[in-house]
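Exercise 7.
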Amino acid sequence: MSVKSGQPQAWPAFFPPMKNPSLQRLFCRFFFTGIVLLLSSCVDTQVAPLSSGTTPAAPSATGFVTIHNDFYWVDQNGQRILTRSGCLRQFNGVFYWYGGNYPRFLEQYCYKSTDLIHWTNLGVCMRQDVDANRIDVLYNDKTKQYVMFMKYNGNGAFLGIATADKPEGPFTLKSQTLVDNARMGDMSVFKDDDGKAYLAYVSWAVGTNAQHGIYRMSDDYLTLDKRMYLWDIRGREAPHIFKRNGIYYYGTSRTMGIQSSGTSYYTATDLAGPWSPAKPLSTPGSTNSWDSQVDFVYPIQGTQGTLYMFDGDRWTKNLPEGRNGDYIWLPMEFNGDTPVVDYNQDWDLNLSTGTWRKIDAARNLAAGKTATASSDDGTNLAKNVTAPKTYQDYVNIHWDSAPGDQQWIMVDLGAPMDINRVILKWNTNAAKTFTIQTSTDATTWTDVFSTTHGASYSVTDEKFETTAARYVRVNATERAPLPPGGRGGRGGAAATPAAPSGQSGYSLFDFMVLKD
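Solution. The predicted structure, written as tokens, is:
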């Protein structure tokens, strides 16, 4: 019942008449309140995990967040995120990032986030005695189980399937099976709009990595049901499927081990085919998917559209080009139905609207402003942190402090202005414990952010309450340990440049100040 303010309220005919209007209104209010409470108690308010193949935005995520490439993703403790050959999913408004760690993949890790920026390590969600990678996880709406799919036990491997009651596990292995009585290579799974799940896999039935196929899974996702398509594709791996405007895209990388490679894709309007010939993914300026091997393309559905996000594993680095980090996330644009992936070291993502935008340099209030520090080391001066740069030259334009001083760096914005966000891009010699402070006179300082979990070659991107400040300073008191070398942080070729001999100061690429 809707009653406008100032209008008399109609008296229901099934109530006994009352002469006193005040008692009449009071009785009516208590009666309808009781009805509402009774109906509310009958409604099941439990929210089921998402069943479609697309991804509505997290309810808590509003406005834009910034994706930073070329740096290491870290968890809440400043430890590198370990999600090689993994997947990104969303359940009940929370994002989960699954994957393993090179070289043996004996443990599968799970991380969660509501904004795709700040990640909480939930620990090992599955541990096994054999190699298992190319992890993918789906929620089954009928069985209410989370189902993990794996390339299980070897390079030529079985299809491993495990289940859990919660997205963070623990997952329990249910089966390992051959696909068409043959071992397989890389794989992934795709959940269509109707809830059906499909396995995309590299078949070894007629030779190593000689064919690719698509299998429909059973309704409970635990067994293979029907092969939808099989075709000869040699020398390709890392298969993945996404869907846009009724068109399915089946993507692959070249078979090059852990080396970066170009991405190719096929298209069809039905998973049973026919599929188009292979087409190279357009990556203007790069022939190797921006120094990565494609892992997946993830759709983020919002109120204004769906953003398709390219994820690549960066097993090996291209330090001369300034491209470091273990993973890259890039916005995928479309020219008609043709996908294009350009490089953006930093880009803004709006989870609510499903849109993205390039970084507007004018929003950085510190750009070109005066920067001073407790000390400089050689030619790596404080002013470099506010100088313009691109991903191709930023490694040569940074600040290093000399060892043994107070270790601070400050930006003078020129006049008091409202600010609420600071972005710091750390070099190898990062601060582990530091505080971000603001001031109007460079004498009295207010702490706006502090941490004891800083990490080398990572990005600090933090918002705080809007405050008026002319000066912004970083005070560092403890240096982060030097990062381990290797692919994913465990052995192998050096992932980051070694610290200069005897260096014990701090090193920073960028110091950005914003008002969002």
